[in-house]
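Cross-check.
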Amino acid sequence: MDISGKVALVTGGGSGIGRAICVALARAGAQVAVVDIDEAGGGETVRQLRSKGGKATFVAGDVSSPAGITGIFDAVSAAVGKPQIVHNNAGIMTADTPGWPEASLERVYKVVTINAAGVIMGTRQAVALMKDTGGVVINTASTTALTPLPRDAVYASTKALVVHFTHSCAELAESHGVRVNAIVPNATETPIIAKTGDGVTMAPWLAPLLEGVELIKPEAVAACALDLIRDDKAAGICRVIDFDGERDLQAAAPPAQP
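Predicted model, tokenized:
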């Protein structure tokens, strides 16, 4: 897909990977709808994009409920037109302080609804809007989907869901004209690491895991996302961005039809 002139909707665009994606899309000529529950962060992203000549609009939104999802897509469509690019990027960690399994049920529910349901519902709405004209969906997963993370099992499990869900959406490219792919970054230099995504200090158990680790830059993750958007053959791809390069995860073969 040629990104120039397209409308792009990015959730969690107020910081970290989301902001880097917004910057990259704007540089490529997209009209970017920056979506975030954090109005200050989203507004700052818009300010940065506009200061460099980019086209950007902020839309406040919460991806954790059906009403929130429909509200986001309706608001973006009304403000700048129907999106041809949707990046389901919003996400938080369970590990506000105690981690798993001590985290409250309310926190667990919030992580699941944002990280998992938000991606599924966002993809569903994107497909409904783009099935006649075509488009691209990018989902943000994490390499925690691939290895156990005992102190944040909920976060890791939601990211594993994103990987499997994206693989399962590969056929939508043929049936609905919408390509669904995912980026799967290793530890990245974002606020979700420093503040566990909730404005608090880093969880004590997390710091030792990251000691001496050179975090991936959000800009590298954004570049990978744009590669998947531009590649018209990419569908159901989950691309790992690791410290030593990139690789695509292989999906299991679907069961034989009876």
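Residues 240 and 246 are 5 Å apart (CA to CA). The first strand starts at residue 7 and ends at 11. Passed to J.P. for a second look.
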